[in-house]
What we know:
By secondary structure, the protein is α/β, with parallel strands linked by helices.
Amino acid sequence: MQTPEHYNVAAALAEMAVRNPYQPGIIFPAGRDAGGRAKTVQLSFAQLNAECDHYAHGLAQFGVGMGDRVLLMVRPGVELIAVVFALLRLGAVPVLIDPGMGRKALLQCIAEAEPTVLIGVPIVHALRRLFPKPFATVRRSAVVGGSAVNRALADITLERLRSPRTDPFPTAPTTTESEAAVAFTSGSTGIPKGVVYLHGMFQAQIALLRDAVGIQPGEVDLALLYIFALFNPALGVTTVIPDMDPTKSAAINPAHVVEAIQTYGVTNAFGSPTIWKRVAPYCVEHDIRLPSLKRVLMASAPVPPALIETMLTRILAPDADVNTPFGATEAMPLTFMSGREIVAETAALSDQGQGMCVGRPLPGIDVRVIRITDAAIPVWEDRLTLPPGEVGEIVVKGPVVTRTYLNRPEQTALAKIQDPDGGIWHRMGDVGYFDAQGRLWFCGRKAHRVMTRDEVLFPVPCETIFNHHPDVNRTALVGIGPRGRQRPVLVVEPRAGCMPASLLEKQKFTLELLALGVEYEHTRAIQDVLFYPDVFPTDVRHNAKIQREKLAVWAAHHHREALHGADMTICPSSKPEGLPPSVRIGDLFRALSVLLSVAISVLFLRRYLTDKGKGNE
Length: 617
């Protein structure tokens, strides 16, 4: 391991305040006027740095110091950004948790973080009174809001915590090995896990964004993921915070995103494909182009090549690009790829169910694909690596890779591999493969693979085939039964207005989907289709990662009813029934009859489509 060097990510803000004091540092929404136009709060780098100093002086006087973990649950705003930078400048460690994850998960994450200071909105302090145990390590507290009721909830208000002192606060002498922040994973496959970032990891991420991604000083970034507001001062970039609820990106108003881009000449935007699936159609419908955008970065879920093509041909300037970096909370960014290469070379292969290409590893990042196992791998061996073309688990090593989960020793043991030559390999929990050109292809989450008696099915290659149906919004492949004997089931979320209303419509929709599946070897085994009566459950942070575990439970509850021809769109019950321990002979014959009827219908449908195609030649 290299000798730690002095580094603090917050120092970049003070440097920008000297270098470009009047450049806008952050622009934040502040409601709308009577005409519906956006109102904003704008601080220059000098003003933002001054706010950081005010809070740093106040926090230090309050007793916050180097190494203190500070649970920060403040609504997005200028205060949040200023307090985060103040904590970093102090050498304290902000703990950032998505509040929308649910009470049980939230309380567990707070307990595992072991914060000594709490700064939050009143409801968090009320939660502390109701459930004191997870907050047992908290010694100091500050509440947002100055009412008498709020003041009774904490030691001090955030307003009073802001010191009137105007002298610069000295940056703490942290090193690249000092703890910088704790962020939690999205929890797409379970209770979110705390990820410990070091200042050196932030340093490495900033270097990749600058040197590999190409973000330059003077650019304007639309921070659809708020964490990038931490990196932008070090890049010399203005941050525009969009007018949106960060926990409901699927409901974002595309007009507000377009307004921000056009008003401030946004050059860079990083966000979930869920957001751009709303923005792109809006732009096409209203014939809007966004020539200021140099690059659009999409991550957190597979990006449909058709969305990339729409952005490139209908919305962005000819010299702009769409990039799909691969990464996770534990390690990002890892790979990079031009959207133009996707459209020209890999989109057709993705449409055939070969996965989603996410590009080549970035400089300094080592990416391998190893054999799939659910067991821990204590020590790295080169013989674990699989050859190109073979699907396995993706593992990564490099300066942006985090080393541990906070107070989760079992999860850390399962996710980390010690390299005898130094460093730690992180097991992404994703599966994929390398092609002959050295490009990484993503096939889904390891936990979401379906293991039948005969084969292993991966979600992304399978779902892509069925997503081609014009009435399908998205699909999810889930498995029913024990691993190694699972039955693959396709759960369908139809487009708005396309939910089949009658048994005949359901049968027709099902046959059309099965006809798509029989065209490809890897989807022929999928013979069961269920129609979900609502939008799929997704993660809170991105609204993009489908929670297939929940869908698998729902599918198991409804699969038996579907075999009997019952309503396949029944909402999940509050007391779900498990699958029967055994299947009666009558049930078996009825199931076989249904499957035989479906198979015969598929054959007739294929013949009809073939004859129709010949007749059109």
